[in-house]
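Quick illustration for those who missed Monday's session on complexes.
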Amino acid sequence: MTLQELKSAFVSAYGKEADAVYFAPGRVNLIGEHTDYNGGSVFPCALSFGTYLLLRKNGGNSIKFRSLNQTEVIELGFDKLSTPLNKTWVNYPLGVFAQFIKRGIEIKDGYDILIWGDVPNGAGLSSSAALEVVTAYALNDQLGTNFNRTILAQIGQKAEHEFAFVNCGIMDQFASANGAKDSAIHLNCDTLQFELVPVKLKGVKILISNTHSPHKLDSGAYNQRVAECQLAVKQLNTVRPIKYLAELTEAEFKNIESVITDVTAHKRARHVVGEVQRTKDAVIALKAGDLTLFGKLMNASHVSLRDDYEVTGPELDCMASEAWKIDGVIGSRMTGGGFGGCTVSLVKEEAIDTFIKEVGTAYQTKIGIKPEFYIAEIGDGACKLA
Ligand code: GLA
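Prediction with alpha-D-galactopyranose bound:
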C-alpha cells in the first residue's frame, strides 16, 4: 500500500485526516539464534517491510485501535490501558501504552489509531516487534518523552513480556528500532552496545523462504527454552559464577559441562555457547568478505538449532536441507524463534530462479504446503514518515 492509500484508509476509517504516520520494520536474523536472552550477540538486519501506524488526536478520553490486517476494533478509556486484554492483536500496542504509563508518563490525549503491516504474520520476521516499536516510536514523538531508540526497544520487549507473555530477548525490537539500510547490526545483548556492519554481498542476495507453517512462539516452547538455559546456568554456578551462558568460551564450557546433569539443559547450553562463537566468527568473516565461511557458519547454526536446541521441526529442516543441495547457495538456516516461520539463505544471483523453483517444488511435495520466497532489502529502523 502506498502512503497515499494509507492516508485515505485513515480518512475512510475515522472521517478525518491523520496527524502523523510512523513506520517500524520487521527483521531477519543472519546468525546468533537464541543467544540474546543468554547475554550473547546477534546479527540481524531490519527489513524494508514492516508496520505503519497512523494517528490523530481525537479530542476525547479514549484510544481507538484499528488495523487493516485485523477485523477487531477496540476502544479503551485511559483507565483501561494498563491491563492486557484476552487474546487480541491490540495487546501489542496496548502493552506499549502500559509501559509508558509505568514509566510515569500520563496519557492526556485520546487518539484514533490505524495500523497496517506488510510483514507476513507468524513468519518469524518480527511482525509483533515491528508493531510494538512503531507504537513506542509514535508515542515518544507525540508525548515528547525523548526516549532513545534503545529504550524504545526495551519498552517493546517489556510489552511482549507483560502483554503477550513471551519472555523474549531484545533482538527483534532492537533491530526494528536501530536498523540501518544495507547494514547488519552486531548487537551485544548483555551491554546493548552495537556496531553496524555494511552488508556488501557482490552478486549474492539474502533470500527469505517462508515455510507457511506458523511459528508458535506463544506455545510455551520458547519460554521453556529460556527456563532450560537458566537451569544450565544454575547448575554451572556450582563450579563457576556466571550470569549468562554466553560468558563461557567453548573451551571453558567443555571443562565444566559435566556439572549440567539435566540432559536437555546440557544440549541447550551447548548450542548457545557454540552459537555465540559462530556469531563472532561470522561477523569477522563478513567484514573480511569471506562469504564462504559465513555460509558454513549459517549451516552449522541450523544443525545446532535442529539437534541441540530442537526448535526447527520438519518444515524448517526440509527448507534448509533442500537449499543446501542447490549450486550457488552459500548458506541457509532457520531464522528467528523457530518452530516454523522462515529460513534465510545467501544465494548467488544467478541461482535464485533455480532455488525458488527446485526448493519450492521439493518443499511442496514433501510437506504439502506452498512456500513463499522474498528477496530481502535491508532497510532503516523506525521513523516518522509524515
Ligand atoms: C524470537 C525472540 C528473540 C530471539 C529469537 C531467537 O524472535 O523474540 O528475542 O530470542 O526468537 O533468536
